[in-house]
Task: structure prediction
Amino acid sequence: MVTTGGDKARSYSGDYMSAGKNAEEIVIRYLEGEPTVERVVDCRDNPERQDQEIDFDVFLKNEKKIFVEVKSDAYLGKSGNILFEFARINHTVSNLEFCAVRGWSIRSRATHFIYYAPAVESLYIIKTPNLRTAMQEYTKQARKNTHFDYVSTDEIKSTLNILIPISFVKEIKIVKLNFA
Result:
């Protein structure tokens, strides 16, 4: 199980990073096996793409291109919710303009989010506008009852998430994995 917390030096190392890397490898394997996919360009080491929160450029056989950001969610498929990272709080940053920044769900330039749900060995593929619209519709309806989740990510960061009931997400594709 992935651990987070204020006593953890950095979230982008150790088990947290391992879970994310595992999800990325599973997604690239899935994409490369899809009959509609021409090729996948791995952008994980590209600083410009990382600033845009994009892991893969995917070229489709119909000559279209999509941009994918991969996430891993240990609770997805069991909780009934999908995570929307709303904000990240930077506790130690000296430039106070960045004391809090928009979460990846908002700032990503990806056209699609692909969440890996290890609890149910599935991928949840969502067009970015559909996730953002789900957040708007859910919070508009729930108002004060919106389910926020505060995560003490590591020693220097915390994250504020909105847990959106999956029923609010339109056109979600769920792929049950059965890799040999």
Observations:
- The mean pLDDT is 93.
- The beta strands are 37-42, 56-60, 65-72, 81-90, 100-102, 112-117, 122-127, 148-151, 157-165, 173-176.
- Residues 130 and 170 are 6 Å apart (CA to CA).
